[in-house]
Amino acid sequence: MKAVLYVGHGTRVLKGSEQLKKFVEDAKKDIPYDIQETCFLELSEPDIMEGAARCVERGADSIAVIPVLLLSAGHIKEDIPKELEKVKKAYPKLTIQYGAPFGLHTKMIDVLQQRLESKGWQKGEDAEILLVGRGSSDSNAISDFHEIASLLQQRTAVVKVDTAFLAAAKPTFDEGLANKTKSKAKSVYVLPYLLFTGLLMQEMETKIERANQISESSLYLCDYLGYDKQLIEVLKERAVETFDQPFLFEKSGENV
Question: Which Pfam families match (predicted)?
Fold first, then answer.
C-alpha cells in the first residue's frame, strides 16, 4: 500500500509547526492516498523515523517522501536522505521514493505578488522590493533564489528587486536593510520567502521598526508565504509525481 510522508523543517515556535500540520491536513483532502503522515527534520515532533513508522504501522510498503521546503539545498540533498537511510535499515522491505521541494513553481510567484498586494503595493507604484531568504551554502539554492527574484521583478515591473539572506549567504538581511534605508523610492517592501512564522520573522519585524526611524523610504514588512491554498496544488503535484520517480531505496536496499 502506498503512503505519503510530508517532511517539514521544524521550528522552536509551536505556531510554526502547527501551521505546517494544518496545511498538510488541508492538502490531504485533495491527494489520493489513504495513508498520509507529517513529520519534521528537526526541532519539532514527530521526527522522520517516527513518521515512517506510523506509515508502516498503517500498512504501507511504499512511501513517497515529500519535503515541504522551498528550495533544494543541504536539508534536501543531505540531511533528509541520511534520515531515510536509517528508515531503510529499520524497514528493509520498505520502498522509498523521494520527491522535490516547491522549487521554481509559478504559483510561488503568484503567492509573493499576493503578499505584496495585501500590504498595499500597487503596480506602477514608486517602490522597490527586498526579497529575503533563509539562506544556504548551496550555490544552486542561491541561484534558484536569484531566479525567483528575477521572475518577481518581471511580474511586478518594479525598478529593483534586491535579495538578502538571514543566514549562510551574502548580502545579509542587515546589509540589505541598511541599503534600503538609503533608497530614493517612496516605498520599500520587505518580502520574506519563508513558509512559516518563527523567530526569524520576529527579528525582522523588530529591525524594520528601527530602520523606519532613519529610512528615507517607508519600509513595509510583508507576511511570510504561509501555507497558502495555492501551495496545496503544488504539494499535490509533488506527491503524485513522486510515485513516478526512480526509487531512492528499493526493497533490495540498494540506492538507485
Answer: CbiX (PF01903)
Q: Using a cut of 0.90, tell me whether the model's pTM lies above it.
A: no
| CATH architecture label of 2-102+228-242 | 3-Layer(aba) Sandwich (3.40)
Residue 218: all three cell numbers together:
517607508
As a whole number of angstroms, the distance between CA 114 and CA 224 comes to 11
Of 69, 22, 60, whose CA–CA distance to 41 is shortest?
A: 69
Q: At what angle do helices 80-90 and 48-57 cross, to 10 degrees?
A: 40
Instruction: Say whether 104 sits in a helix, a strand or coil.
Output: coil
pLDDT in tens, 64-77: 999 999 998 878 89
Residues in contact with 17: Cβ distance below 8 Å, sequence separation at least 6, in sequence order: 8, 10, 11, 40, 43, 44, 196
- Model confidence pLDDT, tens digit, residues 93-132: 999 999 999 998 999 999 999 999 999 999 999 999 999 9
**What is the location of CATH 3.40.50.1400 in the chain?**
2-102+228-242, 106-221
H or E stretch at 66: strand 62-67
**Helix crossing, 173-180 with 199-211: angle to 10°?**
30
For CA atoms 154, 155, 159, 160, give the dihedral sign.
negative
Q: What is the grid cell recorded at 22?
A: 494544518
Pick one of 3.30.470.20, 3.40.50.1400, 3.30.70.2640, 3.60.40.10 as the CATH number of 106-221: 3.40.50.1400
